Amino acid sequence: MKKYGKGMASIMFGFGYGEGFPDHSIASIEIMEDERIQIKTAAADVGQGVITTVIQIAAEILRINPENFEVIQGDTHKTKNSGSSSATRQTYFTGSAVKKAAEELLANIYHYGSIEFRSNHPELGVENGRIFLYDDPDDYITYWELARRVKESGNRLEAEASFFPVTYEPDEKTGQADKVYVAYTFLTQVFEIEVDTDTGIIEVLNVYSGLDLGKAINPKNVEGQIEGGTVQGMGMAVMEDQIIKEGKTLNAGMTDYLVPTSVDIPKFEHSFIEDEDSEGPFGAKGVGEPTLIAASPAIANAVYDAIGVRFYELPITPSKIKKALKEKNEENK
Hints:
The chain is built from six helices and 13 strands. It is α+β, with helices and mostly antiparallel strands. A four-stranded mixed beta sheet has the order 1-9-10-13. It starts with a strand and ends with a helix.
């Protein structure tokens, strides 16, 4: 017999290293002569999409197609510190560093453009890789031609920036601070499940997510983060059970340590709350790790709603379900 249940959980997540750690990221950007714009960052893209994100940020500031960009990534000879790809921090820190570098580069474009046009900044415009006079848009110089002329003068059309926000060390006695983390991401999820009372198997049917992320720079990337993180949380909730005996893991292989596969993926619906309350690029906040936290308590609440049994240990395996239902039935006799 299958019983339906619905459960909800809400979480908040402070991202960045926090607790007064002097966290920062450095990035640089340069206009090359072959219709490329080169971003240099040590930020590691481990699948979360930071490279796509920094390109979009720079393209927005410089008002040019993202296809013109290339990223020099993690080269110790060419890049400076961007911090680790952890603590859900790269969009906030490296995204901000790239935004600042792109703004500095745009200022340089206006500066050198005003020299070329013998005009002032307010009389110039930029669009699609061109700088032009507002009064005569057909009179323009491309970024690449401007870069070539700047190079002939002994300079380079480039900029570098560091994003180094103020952090506050917590009080040793109270643990309180003006801001323990640079910003907070908020997530609420509702899970719809079915519990098979004969087999004890939990099937996740639907997941509804409401995410306060500041600003979705790339909505598809954010959806991927939500779904990937949620599935990891599902694994923690109903499958992943490390068996240890005398200090040794007995199920160290993927045949007996179960993780969710494509057949376990539920249907998702997402809602983004773009409340720009952070110093991140365009108000963006981190979304990586927060997306896996709500799944376990939401599923536990849904199981309680379905069968009236509260579980306090994870994972909620079929054997635990069957044992709990047996004990419940015996108590009701």
